[in-house]
Amino acid sequence: MQRRQFLAASLATSALALARDAKAQSAAATGREFYQIRQYKLFNGPETKLTSEYFEHALIPALGRLGFGPIGAFSLTFGAETPVNYLLIPGNSVEALVTADLHLNEDAEFQKAAEPWWSAPAKDPSFQRVESALYAAFAGWPKITPPEASATKGKRIFQMRTYESPSYRDHVVKVDMFHHGEFDFFKSAGLHSVFYGDMLIGPRIPCLTYMLSMDNLEQLNEKWAAFGNNPDWKKLSADPRYGFEPTVSNITNLVLAPMGSSQI
Question: Could you give the C-alpha distances from 229 to 130, 188, 215, 222, in angstroms and in order?
Fold first, then answer.
């Protein structure tokens, strides 16, 4: 009975939050950011350098002039396919994020700097495809928190993980689990949390995505072992509210390196 009441309350809370997000209310009013994550699928060869220069000299400065930031720019180190670049763009509203490209067309400075990438001929394209997804920040982690090394362009790597759930109920339960301990357990393990987002528009819904940071690849297994061995984590995962069935059906795990233009 308690679990049913808990799930009913969680589902009701999530439904209300998603309804607010779907109406694109200002994050300034709710205290939560929205995120667009763009995936740039590239060809091996000069296109990778061309895209890197496009991010640095055209796209990220133009997005900054529109009020977006800090913007993360990453190259895929380990994942399903390479070369792939990712952009993480935070905004105060859904409308601002989904209309950003329309405003880029009005920016003469951007158009000039973007010309080599923007107008590449069909016989020598600058990219294969660009895919994007839209997220609402978790209520308990409402804004991006870059690691300290971002300010000095210090050594750092990132892990971006996407959890798919077998049902909307299980998705709500998994999000709730982050709010009832996992944020703190990551910190205790030495894993820096960058963002947590609930996917509003994109593939494989229902799902969530979050990003962690550490100094180097060697720390990855060490810090995850510390997380998994935390007795409080073991207690939480065994709690009947969360352990009644597998709430995650698939995990996508990417290791990313910050590009020179990244602000995160």
Answer: 39, 11, 21, 11
Q: Quick one: residue 94, left, alpha or beta (phi over 0 = left, psi -120 to 50 = alpha)?
A: alpha
Rounded Cα gap, residues 234 and 138, in angstroms = 23
Domains observed in the chain: 2-258 (3.30.70.100)
pLDDT tens digits, 140-194: 999 999 999 999 999 999 999 999 999 999 999 999 999 999 999 999 999 999 9
Render 161-182 in DSSP notation, one character per residue.
Answer: EEEE-SSHHHHHHHHHHIIIII
Rounded to an integer, what distance in angstroms lies between the CA atom of residue 252 and that of residue 196?
Answer: 15
* Distances in whole angstroms, Cα of residue 57 to Cα of each of 62, 103, 110, 187, 191: 9, 17, 8, 35, 31
Alpha carbon of residue 240 to chain centroid? 29
What is the tens place of the pLDDT at every residue in 100-141? 999 998 999 999 999 999 999 988 899 999 999 999 999 999
